[in-house]
Fold this protein.
Amino acid sequence: QVQLVESGGGLVQAGDSLRLSCAASGRTFSNIILGWFRQAPGKEREFVAGIRWHVRNTAYADSVKGRFTISRDNAKNTVDLQMNSLKPEDTADYYCAALYGVVISTSWERYTYWGQGTQVTVSS
């Protein structure tokens, strides 16, 4: 089992920055991939960013490239999502998810473990 707990959501204005954090615990982190997904009301859950824990390979959705950065802290067992230049269309519930593998999947169905989510609202 892997437990994931997100934090850092909130209400910000367009152009602001926000940092989300996902604290991971449980099973070994060997070959684990951590991903961030988001889901806006009435829309499907979509991939935002992912990182392979040990090799630090990263992947991003086109909509966030250049604005969002995913990183991990081995000492704290956290995966952070730094979000800059936020736009109203970034408004959504953000979820941290994990899967065991070697390829960062953009499909939420591939992820086994999920956090409870944290809400991000960007006002215009």
Remarks:
- The chain has a mean pLDDT of 95.
- The longest strand covers residues 18-26.
- DSSP finds no helices and eleven strands in the chain.
- Residues 66 and 84 are 9 Å apart (CA to CA).
